[in-house]
Design goal:
Layout: H1 16-36, E1 39-40, E2 46-48, H2 49-56, H3 61-66, E3 69-71, E4 77-80, H4 85-94, E5 103-112, E6 124-133, H5 139-155, E7 160-166, H6 170-185, H7 193-201, H8 215-219, H9 230-245, E8 251-252, E9 264-272, E10 280-286, H10 290-293, E11 301-307, H11 308-317, E12 329-333, H12 336-352, E13 358-360, H13 367-376, E14 381-385, H14 387-392, E15 394-399, E16 406-410, H15 414-421
Parallel strand pairs: 1-5, 7-8, 12-13, 12-14
Antiparallel strand pairs: 2-4, 3-4, 5-6, 6-11, 7-9, 9-10, 10-11, 14-15, 15-16
Helix pairs in contact: 1-5
The protein binds histidyl-adenosine monophosphate.
Histidyl-adenosine monophosphate is lined by residues 83-85, 113, 115, 121-122, 125, 127, 129, 131, 259-260, 280-285, 287, 303-305, 307, 309-310.
Length: 424
């Protein structure tokens, strides 16, 4: 394939045959956020590179090696957004949305990370992202979690479970970080290359290592819960009690540290056992310091992002069948005059019957070929218009599914007859 028609590695087309599940999911998400009073915000796909460096963190995988960064014609360094939180925080600051106000926001769209593509991990992927700005919780932490628990129920997805942790405040985390570095330095010979590199920049990420040779060492590492400040501990305990009261199951995973630097206190991840190694379907946490760090008024905040491709795959595995948008009626017309009359009829019916989906059999061919296409479209009814019908000013209505029934009716009455006799 020449590079002009070769898709970019890790970036996928969503074809019409697959779009049903996407739309099913997107529809459920829109209903969900409306239920909880969250408002949509749309932020640009491109931001200044510096925004992501300052928020996600210099020593994260995303910033170190996964960003699509380029210089534009004016020489500015820009980056395709690898996630939405930084852009939304930037938008809240640059639009003067803070000043003591609170916002419950959501957005949906493509994100870009130059990762090694594999099933469930792509270079362009889509997130459904929710952010609550101005709330210090833990009540809002609970809301975000029960909201997603509701989504899994609504979608009929059972193989999803919740992991929780608290990362404390930047101060308590700094103390913990020191303890952790001390511990790993004591075992430096056992550290793999990746972990040795992380020891200087981002030692907490060592806890996230998937290397089997590192697991025993990690299991013996000091735990962050034992180093939480009193405020964070109380926050974490209240959150857990409220989740228990709401009947949401969870596991505290003391090694859940997240791959982005802006988190404090609550972090969580919904994981699944149905997708192999790319098991996180929705992840997030609190980022009380981020907005100040970017130059805005101190604003506590929390949010999460769900990976749309991964949840679409869960829906496919659960054999969820989306509502098919097949036509209700398919117009089969033969001959030039019948085609013109058929096109006019189609428009009249779309005016008259706004709930009906009317398809027109473009592309000509004999009746047999056209009926084949009508059948393949999934339409319930065919409206047949040939020279002979045209002469007599009638149209034939033919049932394509179940009982085969055909009637003829005057052109002017088609709409009323369809509604009266053929409504689904
Ligand atoms: P994240 O954990 O980097 O967090 O990504 C959130 C979710 O996006 C993951 O759980 C996963 O489902 C999906 N995801 C991430 N990378 C890929 C990929 N390469 N291919 C397919 N799906 C992927 C964030 O992005 C934070 N901004 C979440 C957040 C919002 N925290 C606070 N507010």
């Amino acid at each position: 394939m020449t590079s002009g028609v070769r898709p970019v590695r890790g970036m996928n087309d969503v074809l019409p045959a697959e779009i049903g599940l996407w739309q099913h999911l997107e529809g459920a998400l829109r209903e969900l956020v409306a239920l909880y009073g969250y408002q949509e915000i749309r932020v640009p796909i491109v931001e200044h590179t510096d925004l992501f460096k300052r928020s996600i963190g210099e020593f994260t995988d995303i910033v170190e090696k996964e960003m699509y960064t380029f210089a534009d014609q004016g020489g500015d360094s820009l980056t395709l957004r690898p996630e939405a939180t930084a852009g939304i925080a930037r938008a809240a600051i640059s639009n003067g949305m803070l000043r003591g106000q609170k916002h419950k926001l959501w957005c949906m769209g493509p994100m870009f990370r130059h990762e090694r593509p594999q099933k469930g991990r792509y270079r362009q992927f889509h997130q459904f992202d929710v952010e609550a700005l101005g709330f210090d919780g833990p009540d809002v932490d609970v809301e975000l979690i029960v909201m997603m628990a509701r989504l899994w129920r609504t979608l009929g997805l059972g193989r999803v479970s919740l992991q929780l942790n608290s990362l404390g405040t930047p101060q308590s985390r700094a103390l913990y970080r020191e303890r952790l570095v001390q511990y790993f330095r004591g075992h430096e010979a056992v550290l793999d290359e990746d972990s040795r590199r992380r020891l200087g920049g981002n030692p907490l990420r060592i806890l996230d290592s998937k290397n089997p040779d590192m697991q025993a060492l990690i299991a013996g590492a000091p735990l962050i819960v034992d180093h939480l400040d009193a405020g964070s501990l109380a926050h974490f305990e209240t959150l857990q009690a409220a989740l228990r009261a709401a009947g949401v199951g969870f596991t505290v995973n003391p090694r859940l540290v997240r791959g982005l630097d802006y988190y404090s206190r609550t972090v969580f991840e919904w994981i699944t056992d149905a997708l192999g190694s790319q098991d996180a379907v929705c992840s997030g946490g609190r980022y009380d310091g981020l907005i100040t760090q970017l130059g805005g008024e101190a604003t506590p905040a929390i949010g999460f992002a769900m990976g749309i491709e991964r949840v679409v795959e869960l829906l496919r595995l659960a054999q969820v069948v989306p509502v098919a948008h097949t036509p209700d009626a398919y117009i089969v017309a033969q001959g030039e005059r019948a085609t013109a009359a058929g096109l006019a009829l189609a428009e009249r019916l779309r005016d008259q019957l706004p709930r009906w989906r009317i398809a027109f059999g473009h592309g000509g061919g004999n009746f047999k070929a056209q009926f084949r296409r009508a059948d393949r479209s999934g339409a319930r009814l065919a409206l047949v218009l040939g020279e002979s019908e045209l002469e007599r000013g009638v149209i034939a209505i033919k049932n394509l599914r179940g009982e085969t029934r055909q009637i003829e009716c005057p052109m002017a009455e088609v709409g009323t007859r369809l509604e009266a006799e053929f409504k689904e």
